[in-house]
Every structure is written in structure tokens, then in C-alpha cells.
């Protein structure tokens, strides 16, 4: 069963070094610590992806569940940027660029993320300070 939350939920690739670094960056720069996190490899992430008709085994993007909707690729990344402090929230302005153009560049990075940034053996383990922000089971 997919977790229900009024808070936005970021679904990321738990073994991707770029994705994990992005989670660290987001936690550092958030306006308010509202965002919840889960890896697509964890049961809550898998359940959310299935709920929205996405294949949890074929994930090559970041997802954001916000206000009952699922956003992916550049749309998710830019919505996440809107939750960050200055100057990072300014990146949300790129939302005016049509998604097919934004996603073209997004896919280049996503398809090469393991080669360029590396891959972990296992999913990220949150620190005790972070644990309340992660959906694990």
C-alpha cells in the first residue's frame, strides 16, 4: 500500500551517487524541512510508483509526489527547486521551457549518472537526525 502524506515526497534512486548527493543538497537548502524522501528500491517508493502506474524496476528519473500528483524528470526537479532557499529556488523559472526540451537534457544526465557520478552497493542509510524524513518501510 502506498504511503499517504500531505507533505511532498521525493522518490530517488537509492544507489545513485548523484541522487544521494542531491538529497543532501536539498536537505541543506530547503526553505522548510517539509519534504519526505524514499528510494525507489524501498517498499514505500515502490508502492507510490505502482500507485501512479510507473514501473518501480525501470526507474531512471527522480519523482516528486505533491498534492496528489506525480511529477517526473525535469518537472520534478524544478518543483523541488521551488522548495529551496535563495538563490536555488530561482531555477524554478526554467519551468517556462517546454518539457520536451527540458527533459532532453535531463535524460542525458539520467542515462549517464552511474558512469559520471558512481553507484553504491546498497541504498542510502539515513543518519539518526535524518530518519524522520525518510520513508523506509
Helix content range of the residues, please? 25-40%
Please provide the count of β strands: 4
Q: What characterizes the major β-sheet?
A: 4 strands, mixed
How are the strands of the largest sheet arranged? 2-1-3-4
Shape: globular
> Uncertain runs with pLDDT below 50, 5 residues or more?
none
Name the helix and strand elements from N-terminus to C-terminus, one letter apiece: EHEHEEHH
Oligomer: single chain
Determine the N-to-C terminus distance. Answer: 11 Å
Strand content: 5-15%
Report the structural category: alpha+beta
Mean pLDDT: 92
* Rg from Cα: 14 Å
Total helical elements:
4
Structure report:
The longest helix is centred in the last third of the chain and has 19 residues, at 99-117. The chain is globular, with a radius of gyration of 14 Å. It has 137 residues and is an alpha+beta fold. It is 36% helix and 12% strand. The model has no long low-confidence stretch (mean pLDDT 92). Strands 2-1-3-4 form a 4-stranded mixed β-sheet, sandwiched between helices. The chain has helices at residues 17-29, 43-51, 73-81, 99-117; strands spanning 9-12, 36-39, 63-66, 69-72.
Amino acid at each position: 500500500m502506498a504511503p499517504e502524506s500531505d507533505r511532498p515526497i521525493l522518490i530517488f534512486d537509492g544507489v545513485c551517487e548523484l541522487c544521494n548527493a542531491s538529497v543532501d543538497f536539498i536537505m541543506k537548502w530547503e526553505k522548510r524541512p517539509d519534504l519526505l524522501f524514499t528510494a525507489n528500491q524501498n517498499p514505500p517508493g515502490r508502492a507510490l510508483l505502482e500507485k501512479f502506474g510507473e514501473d518501480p524496476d525501470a526507474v531512471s528519473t527522480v519523482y516528486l509526489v505533491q498534492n496528489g500528483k506525480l511529477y517526473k524528470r525535469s518537472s520534478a526537479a524544478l518543483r523541488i527547486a521551488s522548495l529551496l532557499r535563495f538563490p536555488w529556488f530561482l531555477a524554478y523559472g526554467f519551468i517556462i521551457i517546454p518539457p520536451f526540451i527540458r527533459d532532453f537534457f535531463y535524460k542525458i544526465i539520467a542515462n549517464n549518472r552511474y558512469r559520471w557520478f558512481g553507484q553504491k552497493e546498497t541504498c542510502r542509510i539515513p543518519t539518526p537526525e535524518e530518519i524522520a524524513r525518510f520513508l523506509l518501510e
